[in-house]
Design brief:
- The chain is an all-alpha fold.
- The protein has helices at 6-24, 29-45, 51-69, 76-108, 123-138, 147-155, 168-175, 185-210, 214-221, 228-259, 277-281, 286-300, 307-325, 329-355, 358-362, 366-388, 392-402, 415-418, 420-427, 443-458, 462-466, and strands spanning 409-411, 431-434.
- The protein has 2 domains: 6-183, no CATH class; 196-466, no CATH class.
- It is globular.
Length: 469
Amino acid sequence: MLFNSYIFLFIFLPITLLGYHLIGKRGNSRAVIFWLVFASLFFFAWSSPYYLILISASILFNYAFGLILARPIKHRKLVMASGVAVNILLLGYFKYTNFFIDNINALFHTSIHLDTIVLPLAISFFTLQQITYLVDIYRGERPEHGFWEYCLFVTFFPKLLSGPIVRMKEMMPQIGKQFTPRITSQAIAVGLTILFLGLFKKAVIADQIGAFVAPVFDAAAQGSGINFFNSWSGALAYTFQLYFDFSAYSDIAIGLGLIFGIRLPLNFYSPYKAKSIIDFWRRWHMTLSSFIRDYIYIPLGGNRHGFLRQVIYLLVAMTIAGLWHGAGWTFVIWGSLHGFYLAVNHGWRQLKRVLGMEREEKRGSWWGGALSTLITFIAITLAWVFFRADSLNAAIEMLKGMFGVYGFHLPVTYFAPLGAAGHFLSQIGVNFDLLYPLPGFAPLAIFWILVSLFICWFLPNVQEYMKRD
């Protein structure tokens, strides 16, 4: 059940909201929590009722381990590590078993067969969330809550599809004993506004520009020799499709949460305005970034053991982040590439600190900031190629096109309308020799890319519009 589907918008959501209102009028917060858990499990089971067993077992296991960790027992670290390991193994079985078998077969020329394991809805998100629960209890954080509050913490449907990855301290205080289930006109107004803005981004922008992505990447996968203009337009179209997809789902989650009186953490904040890769990861999938930092990077050692080890820890943490996104070498390379970007960014900061350039940067001109944003954006776009490509060969073909290996070609029909610009382009090596239109470089594709660029770089985001505090 997708957030932009008719059954969600016109059946599931109204019924859930009506039940929330009717039960909430009686002032029974426990009954409201039970109702939201029931609705969330129904939402989860819509894809496959079979996976209700999985999420129920996962909830029971982690809640029980949490109770054990909350006591002053011996070997608490071992208990915590065991609980985390079980969660990782569960995720690994469903998400990476087929990937592992395929690589074993390719490496050792074996023919091990395993039926495709279907990935359960939201397993990547609820697994990480429950890992944070166990680790946070081990660290001494335990906001007051019971079993049903924990169930809602894990299953709350607005965050199931694309996050955010919510921590115990961010949600438990909202749904504890002080939880007052009621629908207010302000919550409805703000929540619905953010919800509909998210739906607009998804249906009107992301889906429209997404139509120009597949033809380009499919052609690259077939080794068709995608030229400079077509490869860049396809890569940019995907860069913006992904932006508005994730921005939309982040807005929808926050809007739905507000409607039900629960404030979910911000997960997306104009990431393409970032002036560095470090800044990008403070704006893109913010809850995943904080998870990587607090539960992987810092426990590994962070920046406490010198720059060389910091680089290693960044590469390890971001490679894991890439693998979390998907079971494939393209995702591994995407994560490793961002680890490399971050290492370069941190190295550059250290160099400026040594050279005394920090103050100069703070007084920097607007064009310096604009150049930093442009360089960061190009680096991000190049990395997204691996994220989208079906294989390493397809990604390499795309990058070869983007670096001009297959030339600079445009349809002959573009020459006359461009006028003087067409003559200039032909003089610097652009060939107007194609007899057919490029799948990703159609006028409509260029229009959507320019509109998307304008929105991402020059317009305020939804939170800035709504003055969300």
